From TrEMBL:
EC number(s) per entry: 5.4.99.-
Family named by the database record: Belongs to the pseudouridine synthase RsuA family.
Reactions listed under catalytic activity: a uridine in RNA = a pseudouridine in RNA
InterPro entries: PsdUridine_s_RsuA/RluB/E/F_cat, PsdUridine_synth_cat_dom_sf, PsdUridine_synth_RsuA/RluA, PsdUridine_synth_RsuA/RluB/E/F, PsdUridine_synth_RsuA/RluB_CS, RsuA_PseudoU_synthase, S4_RNA-bd, S4_RNA-bd_sf
Species in which this protein is naturally found: Aquibaculum arenosum
Transmembrane segments: none
PANTHER family registered for this protein in UniProt: PSEUDOURIDINE SYNTHASE FAMILY PROTEIN-RELATED, RIBOSOMAL LARGE SUBUNIT PSEUDOURIDINE SYNTHASE B
Region of interest: Disordered: 238-260
Protein name stated in the entry: Pseudouridine synthase
Pfam families: PseudoU_synth_2, S4
Length: 260
């Protein structure tokens, strides 16, 4: 209701249309290329009310797409960013053509793999990333070292490392084979490189890190490098958010395969 009464920031309206990011929309406004009801917009904070017409370079915006969510099995060796100044490969180099503009929910670092959620809606992205949401992230971690469950149990009370406070983490030893062990980590904060820093703190060197769940969304059997849209019904059940119907599974070559 508040949005109907007060309107929505014009840069956000442009971004939601899929034309560009909010930051890029602000640049378009600064360049004088955006009009609202025929008048050039000067401020990116200008509010758009229902029924008003926004144009960019004289062209009307496309209608905003419904919020959607995708599961991507991120391979190791890809950055979770749109562009890299050093020219390293990013997740966008593996995503198929023809998608709306989608953004990652949280991040996985270069050497981490597994479930990465992507969305075309900035509001949904912020909602899923908020610490207040408290969604459990689950990781499978392979470390070098002889692991003691008693060491892992110390994490359940939270720890402070280099002045950074990490909340309670559930960690379990799954198996030990020679000098390598598989662990399961469950955490809710997801701070930068949190699992690696916690393992380093305990004296264990991570040699593989795989995220297998983010809240109710699971990696499951999704093959490496493939993308699959979360069905609208599932998204509504989990978030109360409308979404477009799922188009089927898309592999890294851009081919859609319908579910049977």
């Amino acid at each position: 209701m508040a949005e109907i009464e007060t309107g929505e920031r014009i840069a956000k309206v442009i971004a939601r249309s899929g034309l560009c990011s909010r930051r890029e929309a602000e640049a378009l406004i600064e360049q004088g290329r955006v009009d609202l009801d025929g008048q050039t917009v000067q401020e990116p904070g200008t509010k758009v009310l229902p029924g008003q017409r926004v144009t960019v370079d004289g062209e009307a915006l496309a209608a905003a797409e419904p919020a959607g969510l995708w599961r991507f099995h991120k391979p190791k060796g890809l950055l979770t960013t749109e562009r890299d100044p050093q020219g390293r490969p990013t997740i966008y180099d593996r995503l198929p053509a023809g998608l709306p503009r989608i953004m990652p929910v949280g991040r996985l670092d270069l050497n981490s793999e597994g479930l990465l959620l992507l969305t075309n809606d900035g509001g949904l992205k912020r909602r899923l990333e908020l610490p207040a949401t408290g969604w459990l992230r689950r990781y499978r971690v392979r470390v070098y070292g002889r692991v003691q469950q008693s060491d892992l149990d110390r994490l359940s009370h939270g720890v402070t490392i280099d002045g950074v406070v990490y909340g309670a983490v559930q960690a379990r030893l799954d198996s030990q084979s020679g000098s390598n062990a598989w662990l399961t980590f469950r955490l809710r904060e997801g701070k930068n490189r949190e699992v690696r820093k916690l393992c380093d703190h305990l004296g264990y060197r991570v040699n593989r890190l795989l995220r297998v769940a983010y809240g109710p969304f699971q990696l499951g059997a999704l093959p490496e490098g493939e993308l699959e849209e979360v069905p609208a019904k599932v998204l509504r059940e989990q978030l109360g958010t409308a979404a477009t119907p799922a188009p089927g599974k898309i592999d890294s070559g851009g081919h859609a395969r319908r579910r049977r």
